[in-house]
Amino acid sequence: MTDFPLTEHIPSLRRYARALTGDAWTADDLVQDTLERACSKWRLWTAGSDLRAWLFTLMHNIFANQVRSAVRQTAAGTAVNVDDVEHELVAPESASSQSLDLQRCLMRLPEDQRAVLLLVSLEDLTYEEVAKIIGIPMGTVMSRLSRARTRLRELMEGPAAAGTVRAIHPESPAPLRRLK
Hints:
By secondary structure, the chain is mainly α. Helix content is 65%, strand content 0%. It is built from 7 helices and no strands. α2 packs across α3 and α6 (127-134) packs across α7.
């Protein structure tokens, strides 16, 4: 196992896990789970292939399994919905409110869109690499990325920005809203 340099990929794994989960402790656990799986399954990695892509694939699969497990727990009534207790959560005042807003907005994106956005923009992976990691067609990667960027822009601008656009350009149509 001498040609299996995991340690050089830990910073990018941590960065992606942190952005994916939105929580430092959960991200560290995800990285640890990924590294444990990589060490136990290292024989499945093909020497000479892209180790970074293989590690991201492992991480993506572990995270997807954790999300599915959380959904099952919610269905069983053992988890708390953050939206139900949102009024009890108070954000700390800080100078990095823009980064906190970005983090909150990223976490409001659907998991599949957030994963693609983070892999392309944060980890600077190509569409082909992302498609291989997540196991979807490249066209789906591009579609999810486009939807993620649009939704993130909407979330970051908020309702105030939509009103500003209408005040400057009153002829512009009212923004579309999703109806349930």
